[in-house]
Structures are given as C-alpha cells and as structure tokens.
Amino acid sequence: MDNDILKVLYSQDEINEACQRLGKQIQTAYQDKFPVVIGVLKGATFFMSDIVRATDTYMQIDFIDVSSYHGGTQSSGDVELVTDITTDVSGRDVVIVEDIVDTGQTLKFLLDMLKGRGAKSIKVCSLLDKPAGRTVDAHADYIGFEVPNEFVVGYGLDYDEKYRNLPYIGVLKPEIYTNN
C-alpha cells in the first residue's frame, strides 16, 4: 500500500497530537453537558475512536452512514442515507465527527437532517478540511488539519474501500485512480 502513496501529509504522531488537541477542545466545550457524538461511517471510525478516548466527559455515541462518492474520487453531489442513527437528538447537543469536509455536500445534508430532528446545537469535528473543494456553505468547528486539493487516503479515508488502515494520511498517486 505504501507504494501507492505519492507523499505522506500527516504522520501517525501528528494525527495523535491533533486528536489529543481536539479531544480537549470538545471536553472543554461539553464538560457539563451530555452530547451525542455521531461518527460518520466508515471514514471517521478511527478518528472518532481516538477523539472520544481523548475526551474526559460524559457522552453518548452513535453512528450514521451516508454516501456521496459511490466508489469514485469526487462527490457525486447526491447524498444517500445508508444507515441512520438510533438516537433521538431532539433537544440534545450533537457533535458530528467527520473524516473530511470536502465539497460540504454530505455535511450540509447531515446538518439539515439533524436540525430538522430538533437538535439543540450541532458542532462538527473533522480530521481534515479541504476548503478548495467546497461547493456549498458548510464548515467544521473543530479541525485537525487543512489539506490541499489532492486525493488523500489513510487513517479511515479510502479509495474504493482500500487504504483505510494506513496509520498516516497520504496523497494517493493519481495513476492509481485514473487507470481504473
């Protein structure tokens, strides 16, 4: 897998430091609350695990699965709810945990859905932010790293369900996804 990576953007140690930093920020913000922390499957799985372990406060955990990439390298713009949360968020503080905010389409979909269900407040924690990819007005409140407009994989992020298990975040060589 390492041979498919053009360059490493963030090492395992840098990711761990970012998770500790973000976990402490969330801990401070929600110290006397009981938020619902919603991880966006599958990409945010590793990140969410590390974030919640770095947060010393009470929280409820849930997961949601949405899809907009459908196996490609760019969002189709068509967001599909694959698996819904099981928690009633009405009147609750919610923290969405995302792997990356790219076009913002998925995040906007989630924000609109949770607002419509009566969430008291909604904040977003994203490992990566790619503002150059943004097509809608959606942003994260807690951000690990800003990334360039390149196709990144690792630490939960994938291409065609591969590379999620890399311990770092790297740029995938273009020939890997342009030859398929």
UniProtKB/TrEMBL annotation:
Q: Which SUPFAM superfamilies match?
A: PRTase-like
Work out whether the entry's keyword set contains Cell membrane: no
Read off the Gene3D superfamilies from this record: 3.40.50.2020
User: What domain of life does the native source organism fall in?
Assistant: Bacteria
User: What EC number is given for this enzyme?
Assistant: 2.4.2.8
Q: Which InterPro entries match?
A: HGPRT (IPR050408), Hxn_phspho_trans (IPR005904), PRTase-like (IPR029057), PRTase_dom (IPR000836)
**Protein's recorded name:** Hypoxanthine phosphoribosyltransferase
Gene that this sequence comes from: hprT
